[in-house]
């Protein structure tokens, strides 16, 4: 579905990603992990055409991303950024309607079909009751559900998220990732998410890509990537890795230094 082929990319001729290659298959739930400065956000920006790679090619559904118009890209891929700022206090329903922009003709208006899709997206994320509220009145968890509803309203086949739970408490983190997993399982939506929390990544993602210094250190199932030697080498800290008895996935514990 999404393929990076020998991608090098960065800013102002400074290379951040160095010859990265990987495939995301249709229906995957993949986590991109790694320490600060490892290249996670740069990878996301390259995948969404915010920045142009220095070298290599990116393919989306076998089409070269470089040749895809942004409007066409928006009908296949939706993005949930880490921080979403609004210049005006839009109503929730108007925010989610923005997700229909790729399908609205120039100088046109949203149709009844567009409104139906938006209401269904809000219902899916359990935010239909918020539709007439203003976005700046919402809690962090409510706001993030609305942003995800906006992405769903795009009717994408792949969803990219940049730290979707960074500013949320544990309860809201679980709610958001339960929602993402439901979307992945029920509709077959391909999901790629940047994550700092290794335990969230382990519990919810079926595959992980571990970046370090702009290269892929490890990729595969959580049990293959999250071994203590690799984590200690990449994150420069001592850890213990145990199996989570509920998910049977690796769970990482930091070792406190006296």
Describe this structure in words.
The protein is α/β, with parallel strands linked by helices. The protein has a domain at 79-156. Helix content is 33%, strand content 27%. It has helices at 40-47, 70-76, 92-97, 112-124, 140-153, 170-187, 198-204, 222-225, 228-235, and strands at 2-11, 14-24, 29-33, 55-60, 63-64, 77-80, 158-162, 190-194, 207-212, 215-220, 239-243, 250-254. Strands 6-7-8-3-9-10 form a 6-stranded mixed β-sheet, with helices on both faces. A 4-stranded antiparallel β-sheet has the order 2-1-4-5, covered by helices on one side. The radius of gyration is 19 Å and the shape is globular. The chain starts with a strand and ends with a strand. The mean pLDDT is 92.
Keywords:
single chain; 258 residues; alpha/beta; 6-stranded mixed beta sheet; 4-stranded antiparallel beta sheet; 9 helices; globular
Protein topology:
Layout: E1 2-11, E2 14-24, E3 29-33, H1 40-47, E4 55-60, E5 63-64, H2 70-76, E6 77-80, H3 92-97, H4 112-124, H5 140-153, E7 158-162, H6 170-187, E8 190-194, H7 198-204, E9 207-212, E10 215-220, H8 222-225, H9 228-235, E11 239-243, E12 250-254
Parallel strand pairs: 3-8, 3-9, 6-7, 7-8
Antiparallel strand pairs: 1-2, 1-4, 4-5, 9-10, 11-12
Helix pairs in contact: 4-5, 5-6
């Amino acid at each position: 579905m999404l393929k990076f082929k020998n991608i090098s990319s960065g800013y102002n001729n400074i290379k951040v990603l160095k010859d990265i290659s990987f495939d995301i298959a249709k229906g995957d739930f993949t986590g991109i992990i790694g320490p600060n400065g490892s290249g996670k956000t740069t990878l996301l920006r390259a995948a969404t055409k915010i920045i142009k790679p220095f070298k290599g090619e990116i393919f989306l559904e076998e089409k070269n991303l470089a040749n895809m118009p942004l409007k066409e890209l928006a009908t296949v891929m939706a993005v949930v950024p880490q921080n979403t700022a609004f210049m005006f206090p839009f109503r929730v329903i108007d925010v989610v309607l923005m997700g229909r922009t790729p399908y609205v003709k120039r100088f046109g208006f949203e149709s009844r079909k567009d409104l139906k899709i938006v209401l269904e997206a809000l219902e899916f994320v359990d935010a239909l009751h918020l539709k007439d509220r203003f976005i700046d009145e919402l809690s962090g968890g409510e706001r993030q559900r609305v942003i995800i509803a906006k992405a769903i309203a795009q009717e994408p086949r792949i969803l990219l998220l940049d730290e979707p739970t960074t500013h949320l408490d544990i309860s809201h983190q679980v709610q958001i990732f339960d929602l993402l997993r439901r979307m992945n399982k029920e509709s077959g939506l391909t999901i790629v998410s940047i994550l700092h929390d290794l335990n969230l990544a382990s519990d919810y993602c079926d595959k992980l890509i571990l970046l370090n210094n702009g290269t892929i250190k490890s990729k595969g199932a959580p049990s293959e990537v999250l071994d203590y030697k690799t984590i200690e080498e990449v994150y420069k800290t001592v850890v213990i890795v145990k199996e989570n008895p509920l998910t049977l996935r690796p769970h990482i514990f930091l070792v406190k230094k006296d």
